[in-house]
Amino acid sequence: MIRFLALLPLGLTLAISASVPAAAQQSHDSSAPIDFGAQHIEIQDRANRVLLTGAVKITQAEMTLNSARMTLSYTGEITDPQVTRIDASGGVTITRPDQVATAQYGVYDLNTRVVTMLGGVTLRQGPNTIQGSRLTINLDTGRATIDGSGVGGASTPGGIQNSGGRVTGRFSVPQRNTPAPAATPKP
Fold first, then answer.
1. Per-residue pLDDT, 100
2. CATH 1.10.10.10: does it fit domain 2-170?
3. Model's pTM, two decimal places?
4. How far apart are alpha carbons 164 and 177 in whole angstroms?
């Protein structure tokens, strides 16, 4: 119990600001308080790590990060940690108000403010979907890239396929209002 209470400042100092590409243009409040939960928390003092396992959920402002396991690396003492990196694995999902990104692994480097998602990446915004093997987001510039990285194919329920090192996707096309054909006058 004492070790769990010592972890509470971690929740206040954790500055996770991951987003997905289209959201990278929107400002994320990285100074907002962070709520986290997991089925198990293990503090590894000598290694300067905190391990969260079992339905891990971190929420900050309008962003949520979910995975089966997360490792938080920090500098300083556990009573006043400075988180430097977050590694997530096992069904990683980042959710923002209008986007969802999923992958097998995710890494957030708080020093460089870069989020990287790896393995079977899918990014959805509304009806638009992009798939690849690696998604990289620079939170300072808003630049995001998705590449195929030569990983084998995957398929979504909509039938979009990521085949061997290619980025694939589907963009929606807005419906245009076309005027009805003019009525032909009757003789």
1. 87
2. no
3. 0.70
4. 39
For residue 147 the two structure tokens come to 């590449």
DSSP string, the chain: -HHHHHHHHHHHH-------GGGGGS---TTS-EEEE-SEEEEEGGGTEEEEEEEEEEEETTEEEEEEEEEEEEES-TTS-EEEEEEEEEEEEEEETTEEEEEEEEEEETTTTEEEEEEEEEEEETTEEEEEEEEEEETTT--EEEE-TTPPPEE-TT--EE-SS--EEE---PPP-PPPPPPPPP-
Q: Which of 108, 81, 58, 68 is nearest to 7 (CA)?
A: 81
Q: What is the pLDDT of residue 181?
A: 66
Least confident of 28-32, 158-162, 183-187: 158-162
